[in-house]
Amino acid sequence: MAFTVELEEWVGSVWHRFITRRASPDFPEARVELANQQRLLALLFRAMGGANGISVEAASDRDLLLRRNVLQQIAGTCKQVPLAWCDENSLRLPASLAVFPEVALNEELYRWLALLAAQAGQMRHWGRDNQRWTQRLLRRYPALRTRYKRLVDAHLQLRPDPASLNRSEAALERALCQALREPGSVEHFPRSERAAWPLPLWLYPPQHLASPQAADLGEDSEESLATPPGEQKGGRKRATRIDESTRAGGLLVVRLENLFSWTEHVDLDRWSDDSEDPDAARVADDLDELTLSRTRLRKGGGLKLHLDLPPADVDDIPLGEGIKLPEWDYRKQQMQDAFVNLQMMVPRDCEAQPLPPRLKASAQRLRRQFEHLRNDRQWLRQQTQGSELDMQAWLDFHVEREHGQCAERGLFMEQRQTRRDLACLLLADVSMSTDAHLNDEHRIIDVIRDSLLLFGETLSGLGDDFALYGFSSLRRQQVRLQELKSFTQRYDDHSRGRIQGLKPGYYTRMGAAIRQATQLLGTSRRRSKLLLLLTDGKPNDLDLYEGRYGVEDTREAVLEARRQGLTPFCITIDREAGDYLPYMFGANGYTLIRQPEQLPLRLPQLYRQLTQP
């Protein structure tokens, strides 16, 4: 009996693979994955005029009412197809392309969709808008005409024959083929009860989800919808809301002798299972539509508390009143005045402490390495007298004299003692993500503390003006900037105690912290001003600060700092930083520390590279 069941399952799986492969219109041997092209496509999209804050992500399959052949109906395929679309937040491309029998053509199709999306705007009519965008792209870049024609010719060979369709569908098919061959030549498209066979060269309208959103799920939404560690989020899913309520009331008639005693009667909810399902992510990926309800699953043996802020008697000590700061809203393209409240604070119970013994050897080695910068001597050119001849000044003098223009200038060089005229403010991200472990012994916050300590030891020995701050946030009403050492304070055991008292905070509202740091650094009278940002991730917070909003606000704060004569520079340990830091800080405005445990020693070396004349 068991053998028969296994044989039936084997035959069924073989039949499923066979019929699915025969019914599929794709070419699996020429399949191209978006994951291998994603970084290149994002760069191409932005280089051709696409909005910088838009991310390139995978699109989920979409339902289309297509006319399917017999094999496709038997296999149950082609009900959903992957389509490309774009909205104000993301460019969604198919997770893989196997439209053409050649790999090169599928790769070219990915590039064409990225180029077309860079020219696209708000879609009002699917057919006319795609023609207009294609016309504009080919008119601006005539070299693309040959590539476009190659894609169109290859695709037209795969489209259904109009002779095999009914009259309305055939008329629509002819109009679409004409629009592909000559973009802009078709103004009106015939109506049809069924959708036309997908056009992979065009963008489709944005896929708006159903009404329920994660924000409507209540306080438990973040935990219940979170992706398990180590698993990557896939495309978007459609969702429907259902009301799952248990019926109450009614008349219950029982015999008293059948009642349980108190010790025998236990109210158990046997529908709930508080264990993790390891296959949940795979099952969710196979579902076309997710059904959401307000039923809550509580983990057994745990108590969940949602505390916004700790009590005042154990929280950090506030310094003065809150500071109102603006914030940039990219959707409105305007600054929102007094939108964020920033509170200056100092760590509580931070007693004066010396430098930990484990860091003393590294601190002494760094002091010796930076000693020559303290007594740095520079050559002053074009001096009237000096120890050596200035050859460049002499050549300029000779050329001007040959042309009859002889201006007075010094022809000597003199080596003199110079004083470093610069100030630095180091802003450290101490959000809750810094509580994560790097290895069995150290957390990210431990590495940040050691980095701040060695940085302070090095700069105090060098004699440069510097300040140290940490920051985290909890929505726009509570951005916390922890003062570890200001420009007016000496670096001593009190500063070391504050650094060693740092604890992981909340979230990362980076724009507000940079704006306040810009104001603090702007009060310095030094000629050169360096603003260093030390972080382990991208901007985020509980409110609208997620995604593009936070990235755009941080970029605007960096631009404001540059306009005030500051030099912002970001140091990160986030391996995904290349996706967003070039946009916020510029290609040369950040660096990635691939081995975070080396950060304490790398930070002073980076400072020396950034401040050398």
Automatic annotation (TrEMBL):
Region Disordered, annotated ranges: 212-240
Alphabetized SUPFAM superfamilies for the sequence: vWA-like
Positions of the VWFA domain: 421-610
InterPro entries, A to Z: NorD/CobT, VWF_A, vWFA_dom_sf
Superkingdom, taxonomy of origin: Bacteria
Cross-referenced SMART domains: VWA
Protein name, UniProt field: Nitric oxide reductase activation protein NorD
Record organism: Pseudomonas frederiksbergensis
